[in-house]
Design goal:
mainly alpha, 5 helices, Putative membrane protein, DUF1003, membrane, transmembrane, transmembrane helix
Amino acid sequence: MSPRHLDTPADRVRRFQFNLDSDVVGVYSERVARFLGTGRYLAIQTIIVVVWIILNIGVFAFEWDPYPFILLNLAFSTQAAYAAPLILLAQNRQENRDRISLDEDRRRAAQTKDDTEFLARELAAVRLAVGDTVTRDYMRRELEDAVEEIAERVAAKLRETPPSDGSDESDMKQK
């Protein structure tokens, strides 16, 4: 046998291992919590309490829980002892779902903001590019101005040259 050292933990033999899936417990706790918060549950509980009291008042021969109704109080205490943690567990699971949903909403909002900023930049770039392009109206005005300028130059040229006998026309044709 080897000597045991104080710095080495002793091996424990586990005889009974009880594993519960936390999701399964959570799902059932949410079901119980939802049921405890319904009017149906309150109506059933009220009917049970009234029947319990009537049977134990002494009208019938079933007095298993006389007047202070200690057994009924014990039943309510036990129910509360189990209901409170189940309700808290259900609330914690709901908070976790809400937190995940909030994180997802924040991520989507950030993505939407980034997409909007990208589109705004793209739109600004398109506006700048469109500002540099020639529009149809601008081209039409420029062509009309050019035609008017050419017409004015031709008219001025015709005014400058005196009418001649035709020899100038033949010279112009040769040129």
